[in-house]
């Protein structure tokens, strides 16, 4: 569940700058922009309202031309997107602005990893969108994640992250493994340990310089995202150390970390990007939104060599919501825009451009992947594969400190085993200490 | 070797006397000159008031901004550090007394960060200043295109931390990075620069060294050029070679400058943040899987903005402030000691 960074690391350089300087500068820019918008709305006489949309990473709205389309339909509206590259920079900024009651954008995106925190602590700072929309458009569990205890819907679902396995057909062939996507999926269906077994098979005749997976942490995330039980129970109690889902994911990850089948890369790091370009790993668990990423990082050289197969278990990795803060100056217009942006037709358009998978099932029948993407992934029926996955995703409960707990397990616990050669028990203990620190115990 | 020492004493004392009294005082007297006689008392009062108040008005903007953006946040941080405050619920603060501080003192992560800050500080500051002084000495010779060399020196400093760190991260990447590739040539096994204990600290310091050496070299160069040439001449007459001149003329003459750079670099090292954060890539605020290069700055950022525990983060901020005060006090003592021996 590398949701902190999903979509975001398209340009690590930008990320870095954002982390250090732009975080502050963009804050200033954002403020002055909202001043501008009220100025133009009230004084300049044009009657135009400027709506600002705060997003992180690449949301795809601009890329899919949705803003242009909307302003054509509504000539009195102009839209400005304030993008922060990294969610770990974006979210604290949103939190402080929500609580200050000023400086928020008219529409504010919320990452799935932060939605529980938003629901539990910021519910009163968002407009209840439940009254504005037909909730049945969205998947039930998607709505449930954004609904407060007293029934307020604070965010409209944008995309979800149904997961498959993307694999290099050419490397599989060289290693003498099955290359057909259906047969391959059948080989590991239902059990991630079978996937690890295929990995062991792969390593026996692996083309030189290649490994089976990018990292043990990504396998951990992939397994965990298919489990119904994560770090918290329904009542909001932390159960991470007793959770069956966590135990299962940890065990699978440990068998990867201790068996030399991992390229030991950190996802969304620069060397990981290079790993795509150099074809240094053969498989990666890919949520729909990662399709565009793989395509971009592998470049022309990877064209037609990648393929997509169904994952052992279906899981959801990532996804986002957009909400309307009550502190916004143009709430009515913002609600209308948020409704339009998340309507099934628009979600289908974003899929066509970015492969971000819709959270509105009625869009599924109309989904079309971009021709370039289809060609890149060996004509794999990606819409079919992801739709099938989406239908069997278990509902997952998130918690307030979900992200830091996950980071502790992957970037402390698993990393120590994978890269420093510690034993699984030592890794688990290190993660435990870290999580105690996170929870203030 | 007596003559350089004698010669040394002379300009130093004169330099110290210079910013003192006579010329400045004379000018001051001039400026304060009494208003021409025969004018109305009102104007003279206005004039005097102007003379007294204007300086305050001129320096006020700094103090207003300092108050708004430094002092108030500073004091507010104290308030936070004594409360249990979460980033997601800033309006509900519960009094915690010194809990946050006690928590820190018993936290392995805090002591680890303090230790890392110190070791990374030492292994980046010491080589950096030594290299800078050497480079400055070389630049101080007559060189063709000296301006070009000096500009080149300053280029790393002008590069953004982000850009520099990104490049270094690639150089140090354990699989296919250029550093490991070169080591491979010499027959050394690849080193996992990001996860090994000393390797990661070395990598982080190398970024700091690369960025700041030129900057310090230029400061040294400026100071070197103020050293009178006759000192070197008399040293040369006494038969001192270049190296002896460097040791016995240049370095003693640079002492105040060296102290200055040591103080500035120490402060910089205590606040080290950007380089390790970006070097760590994703989840860089952890400073590696064993926190092996997590500095105090990173620990504070991690607690405050990633974990969301603002109370504890504020306590770390204040601890850092106290540590800086202690460092400054030590510096002051050392400076005094050195002045006396001089």
TrEMBL record, chain A:
PROSITE patterns: PROKAR_LIPOPROTEIN (PS51257). It holds the Pfam family SBP_bac_1. Keywords: Signal. Residues 420-441 are annotated as: Disordered. InterPro entries: Bact_solute-bd_prot1, SBP. Residues 1-26 form the signal peptide. Gene3D superfamilies: Periplasmic binding protein-like II (3.40.190.10). This is Cellobiose transport system substrate-binding protein. It comes from Streptomyces canus.
């Amino acid at each position: 569940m590398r949701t902190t960074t999903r979509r975001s690391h398209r340009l690590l350089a930008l990320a870095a700058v954002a982390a250090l300087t732009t975080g502050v500068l963009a804050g200033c820019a954002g403020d002055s922009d909202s001043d501008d918008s009220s100025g133009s709305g009230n004084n300049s006489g044009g009657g135009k309202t400027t709506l600002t949309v705060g997003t992180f990473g690449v949301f795809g709205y601009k890329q899919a031309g949705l803003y242009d389309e909307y302003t054509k339909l509504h000539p009195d509206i102009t839209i400005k997107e304030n993008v922060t590259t990294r969610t770990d920079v974006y979210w604290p900024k949103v939190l402080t602005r929500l609580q200050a009651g000023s400086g928020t954008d008219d529409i504010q995106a919320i990452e799935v990893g932060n939605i529980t925190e938003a629901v539990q602590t910021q519910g009163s700072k968002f407009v209840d969108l439940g009254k504005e929309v037909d909730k049945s458009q969205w998947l039930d569990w998607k709505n449930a994640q954004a609904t407060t205890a007293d029934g307020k819907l604070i965010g409209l679902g944008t995309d979800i992250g149904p997961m498959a396995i993307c694999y290099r057909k050419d490397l599989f062939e060289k290693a003498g493994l099955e290359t057909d996507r259906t047969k391959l999926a059948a080989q590991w269906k239902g059990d991630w340990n079978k996937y690890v077994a295929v990995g062991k098979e792969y390593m026996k005749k692996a083309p030189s310089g290649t490994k089976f997976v990018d990292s043990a942490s990504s396998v951990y995330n992939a397994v965990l995202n298919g489990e119904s039980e994560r770090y918290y129970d329904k009542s909001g109690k932390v159960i991470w150390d007793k959770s069956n889902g966590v135990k299962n994911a940890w065990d699978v990850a440990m068998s990867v970390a201790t068996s030399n089948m991992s390229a030991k890369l950190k996802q969304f790091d620069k060397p990981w990007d290079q790993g795509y370009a150099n074809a240094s790993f053969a498989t990666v668990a890919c949520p729909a939104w990662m399709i565009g990423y793989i395509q971009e990082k592998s470049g022309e050289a990877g064209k037609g060599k990648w393929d997509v197969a169904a994952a052992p278990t279906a899981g959801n990795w990532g996804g986002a919501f957009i909400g309307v803060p009550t502190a916004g100056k143009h709430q009515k217009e913002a609600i209308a825009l948020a409704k339009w942006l998340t309507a099934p037709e628009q979600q289908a358009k974003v899929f066509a451009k970015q492969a971000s998978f819709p959270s509105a099932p009625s869009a599924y029948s109309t989904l079309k992947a971009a021709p370039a993407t289809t060609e890149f992934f060996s004509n794999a029926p990606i819409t079919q594969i992801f739709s099938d996955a989406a239908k069997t995703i278990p509902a997952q409960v998130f918690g307030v400190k979900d992200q830091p707990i996950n980071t502790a397990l992957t970037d402390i616990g698993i990393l120590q085993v994978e890269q420093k050669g510690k034993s699984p028990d030592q890794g688990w203990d290190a993660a435990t200490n870290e999580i105690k620190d996170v929870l203030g115990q | 070797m007596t003559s350089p020492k004698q010669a040394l004493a002379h300009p130093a004392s004169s330099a110290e006397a210079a910013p003192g009294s006579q010329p400045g005082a004379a000018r001051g007297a001039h400026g304060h000159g009494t208003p021409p006689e025969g004018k109305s008392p009102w104007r003279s009062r206005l004039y005097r008031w102007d003379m007294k108040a204007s300086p305050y008005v001129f320096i006020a903007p700094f103090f207003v901004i300092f108050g708004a953006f430094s002092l108030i946040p500073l004091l507010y941080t104290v308030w936070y550090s004594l409360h249990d405050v979460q980033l997601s619920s800033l309006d509900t603060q519960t009094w915690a007394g010194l809990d946050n501080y006690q928590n820190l003192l018993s936290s392995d992560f805090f002591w680890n960060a303090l230790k890392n800050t110190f070791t990374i500080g030492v292994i980046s500051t010491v080589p950096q200043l030594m290299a800078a002084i050497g480079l400055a000495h070389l630049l101080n010779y007559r060189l063709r295109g000296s301006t070009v060399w000096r500009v080149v020196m300053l280029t790393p400093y002008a590069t953004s931390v982000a850009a520099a760190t990104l490049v270094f991260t690639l150089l140090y990447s354990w699989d296919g990075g250029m550093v490991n590739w070169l080591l491979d040539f010499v027959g050394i096994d690849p080193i996992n620069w990001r996860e090994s204990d000393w390797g990661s600290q070395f990598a982080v310091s190398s970024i700091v060294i690369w960025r700041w050496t030129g900057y310090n070299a230029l400061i040294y160069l400026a100071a070197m050029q103020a050293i009178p040439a006759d000192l070197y001449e008399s040293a040369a007459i006494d038969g001192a070679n270049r190296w002896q001149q460097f040791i016995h003329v240049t370095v003693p003459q640079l002492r105040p400058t060296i102290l200055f750079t040591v103080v500035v670099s120490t402060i910089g090292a205590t606040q080290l943040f950007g380089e390790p954060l970006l070097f760590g890539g994703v989840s860089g605020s952890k400073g590696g899987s064993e926190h092996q290069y997590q500095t105090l700055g990173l620990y504070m950022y991690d607690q405050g903005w990633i974990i969301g525990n603002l109370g504890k983060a504020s306590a770390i901020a204040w601890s850092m402030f106290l540590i800086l005060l202690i460092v400054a006090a030590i510096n002051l003592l050392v400076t005094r000691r050195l002045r006396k021996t001089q």
